Amino acid sequence: MDNIEVLISKEKLNERIKEIAHIIEKDYKGEEVTFVSVLKGAVFFTVDLMKHYDGDCILDVVRVSSYSGENSTGKIELKIPLKKEHIKDKNIIIVEDIVDTGRTFKYLVNYIKRMQPKSVKTCVMLDKPSRRVVEFHPDYTGFEIEDLFVIGYGLDFDEKYRNLPYIGYIKK
Ligand code: IMP
Ligand code: MG
């Protein structure tokens, strides 16, 4: 096992996720929300967010891949698509683990908009604004972090470390 340093503890994550769930609840009062979780990284965040969400909501998933190892290839591939009938006329919130270059979100927002949702918003656990290649600003953000390759709480390095209950990084 590599030497891992904690960046955001599980207590801090939990506290912030609760806050975001309540902010979203207020924004969508009385309206149903469809959380679209971006597999696989956002699974942990989505589950916890929804457990704290006290309102009408639906869960859906989409899978894209753009990454291998620490470097983005810039190419996005749709691996598990969404069904138009699940998106059309719904309030969609795309839930992601992290926004880095912004390419994945840009792709997903365009993809979902083509299915005629009632509304689309974006929710991300971590944001690395200094790494942006395309312009993108999430509607809901857990934490902004510096340019650091992070692991844990769904985030992987070559598929490992998703199970860590905190956000960490590998000490070189
Ligand atoms: P973007 O399209 O460059 O914004 O990349 C988003 C995707 O890259 C995320 O959904 C992650 O899967 C992956 N990613 C970006 N930064 C990290 C990181 O620090 N650790 C693990 N995965 C990352
Ligand atoms: Mg991802």
Fold and architecture overview:
There is one protein chain. The protein is α/β, with parallel strands linked by helices. It has one domain: Rossmann fold (3-Layer(aba) Sandwich). Helix content is 25%, strand content 37%. The protein has four helices and nine strands; from the N terminus they run βαβαββαβαββββ. A six-stranded mixed sheet has the order 4-3-2-5-6-7, sandwiched between helices. β5, α4 and β6 form a beta-alpha-beta unit. α1 (10-27) crosses α2. The radius of gyration is 15 Å and the shape is globular. It starts with a strand and ends with a strand. 30% of the residues are buried. The mean pLDDT is 94. Magnesium ion binds next to loops.
Short note summarizing the structure:
With 172 residues, this protein is an alpha/beta fold. The protein has helices spanning 10-27, 43-52, 84-87, 103-113; strands at 4-8, 33-39, 57-68, 71-80, 91-99, 119-127, 140-144, 150-151, 167-170.
> Strand order, biggest sheet?
4-3-2-5-6-7
Largest sheet: 6 strands, mixed
How far the N terminus sits from the C terminus, by CA atoms, comes to 13 Å
Highest-level CATH class: Alpha Beta
- Please indicate the count of domains: 1
Strand content: 35-45%
